[in-house]
Amino acid sequence: MRRNIQFRPVLEAHDFHILHGWMHQEHVIPFWQLNQSEEAFRQHLKKALADSHQSLYIGCLDGRPMSYWEAYWAADDVIGGFYKARSYDQGIHLLIGPAEDIGKGCARPLVEAMISFQFREEPRTRLIVAEPDIRNDKMIHVFKQCGFEAVKPVDLPDKRGLLMGCRRETWERSVGNEAGRQGV
After folding, report:
1. Rounded Cα distance, 166 and 175, in Å
2. pTM to 2 decimal places
3. 119 pLDDT above the threshold of 60
């Protein structure tokens, strides 16, 4: 069955409560560490929305909000200091919010859809990076399925991550063509 995946920009007034709730889910807390009070999270969200090096999205599956995304310019992010980041390299952070969506096979099609979106929106992007928590074996596996290759462990301010990269050439040659043929 084909599923419809869409991304829309985060709107603070519209999305605050859903995002705050997702940050308190047991499967999200260890990796995002944003299980804060409403006021503290509101300040975090305002700062993130005002940050010009990233764009925040809500991922919807068949019209239902179920994931949160941060798409960013890697050269302007802390991760850019861990490799030779180029001007149009992009990166992604993500979470699946509702616990009932975990383990349902949604992560791979969601990541593939976001990668397609990023490459389509910026033709000069040659590389998309991610740095999942090094303990998050499930997401590391999903990223590998989506054409990402492990580069090296990195010690970031908030976690020990695994720097991974997906090159446009790899994406177009394999994963992207397959994703485009199969749909979601």
Report:
1. 10
2. 0.90
3. yes
